[in-house]
Amino acid sequence: MAMAMRTRSTVCFLFALAFFCVNSVTPVTAQGRHDREDHHEENISNLNLTPAQKKEIIDTQSHRQDELGKIRRALKEKRHELLDELKKDGMDNGKIDRIVSEMKEIQGKLIDNRVDNFMRMKKILTKEQLEKLFDSYKRER
Q: Does the pLDDT at position 32 exceed 60?
């Protein structure tokens, strides 16, 4: 009886963990991505950038998008790997822990990418432009 309860509790916990991990990074729909890109472009266009600044920002954003794509693909692969492991009859808790740790590391890379982007923007923009940009981000949130 106690073994059955422990097994049921373990299975419920693992399914809850899988649900959390799968949904921890909200997938972006094509429309949501377009809305965000339009809003970002609007924020940038309000900054009265010089041609040199525009070029630097385009280069920065292009590089960032390439990196984000790689990171998101890696995270998606790990989510699938985790779900595959959780579906197995004989789950390997050590393997599950390693996959979850790898997912956390990848999510950290998403944060690093965002901070790096802000640091690059800070180098490109004037103090006034940067204040305008941060004000627009605050209004969005």
A: no
